[in-house]
Amino acid sequence: MRGLFKLLMEKAAREKIPLVCHFDLTYQCNLNCVHCYVIREENRPELSTSEIKDILDQLAKVGTLYLTFSGGEIFTREDFFQIAEYARKLHFALRLLTNGTLIDEQVADRVAGLYPDLVSISIYSTTAEIHDKITSVPGSLARTISAAKMLRDREMRLKINTVLMRQNINDYSKVYELARSIGASFQADPRVTPKNDGDPFPLSFQSDEDDLSRIWADHIFNSQSGEDLSDPHSNGSGDDIPCRAAHTVFYVSPYGDVSPCVQFPILCGNLRDDSFEEIWYHSPQMLEVRSVAISQLPVCSKCDLLEYCRTCPGLAFIEEGNFRAPSKRVCQEARIIRDTKLGG
């Protein structure tokens, strides 16, 4: 199966097929997580149901297969199931990212009826005081865990996702055990996403170097943090491109803005003004990002940490204003990974 996914991704990259879409349906949310990347623009209306359906028609036409609906919180949209059911009729492999707090038995039944490829739920700690402080909503942990169990009872493929930050760095092993206990997969990542307007404020919650060294040495984190080729959002490409952004992966905001990735805030066009095909194949910004090759990067191409590096042009763009430059955070992580693997 891994070989099949690898071949699919490599072929899509060669032919510039926009295979993977991360689509934030709304920036509305019933939680207020401290590290959230969302900046709502009150003067801009979010896409209507009909506009989203039109965009989905366009994506199906150009070959998009994996479609992740996220937010904000997807279930705050009253038309969510109308949109999701339409996406399934177009035969997208549907992935849902949610905090789970709005899921009850009835909603869980309707989600099961979508036959999603994956439902990913964020849990930051099994201690309510820590999780609820991150989400800024008392009682949110209990509702999220309840939702996760309801989804697993309906035999859906479920992932428990956690962002490792200073506030919860000592809790990921308990979240891992929780995921195992309910039959869900587990993913933890120490990378925090900057705000979608480029504001690096969420990065202030990143864990420090000592904590990064500890988690990368832990078998729980290390065993799940390698490239998962079955995950269409995985960075690895197997060739000379730094990541899949603008090659097979792209992001659509609730306002119709298109960028190379949710972590790469370069505006390439807006779907209220231009077709997706025009933006994907002809946007100067998209083409510039797509032109980057690792072998041509003046610093990274000569770096002895390259084989341990999870390159991220988006983070470099946020940190340095230049996506061809090395990211300090990525370099730090690569050095820690090398030292861990070499027993340093």
Structure explained in plain terms:
By secondary structure, the chain is an alpha/beta fold. The protein has 13 helices and nine strands. It has helices at residues 2-15, 49-62, 80-89, 105-112, 128-135, 140-153, 172-181, 209-217, 219-224, 276-282, 284-290, 313-320, 328-341, and strands spanning 20-26, 66-71, 93-98, 118-122, 158-163, 185-189, 249-252, 257-259, 269-270. A nine-stranded mixed β-sheet has the order 6-5-4-3-2-1-7-8-9, covered by helices on one side. Helix 3 links the parallel strand 2 (66-71) and strand 3. Helix 2 runs parallel beside helix 3 (80-89). The model is unreliable at 224-230 (pLDDT under 50).
Helix content: 25-40%
> Average pLDDT, to the nearest integer?
90
Distance separating the two termini: 34 Å
Query: How many strands in all?
Result: 9
Order of helices and strands: HEHEHEHEHHEHEHHEEEHHHH
Query: Which band does the percent of strand residues land in?
Result: 5-15%
What form results from the Cα inertia axes? Answer: globular
Provide the gyration radius in Å. Answer: 19 Å
Task: Name the structural class.
Answer: alpha/beta
Give a quick rundown of the structure.
The protein is an alpha/beta fold.
Q: What's the structural blueprint in terms of helices and strands?
A:
Blueprint: H1 2-15, E1 20-26, H2 49-62, E2 66-71, H3 80-89, E3 93-98, H4 105-112, E4 118-122, H5 128-135, H6 140-153, E5 158-163, H7 172-181, E6 185-189, H8 209-217, H9 219-224, E7 249-252, E8 257-259, E9 269-270, H10 276-282, H11 284-290, H12 313-320, H13 328-341
Parallel strand pairs: 1-2, 1-7, 2-3, 3-4, 4-5, 5-6
Antiparallel strand pairs: 7-8, 8-9
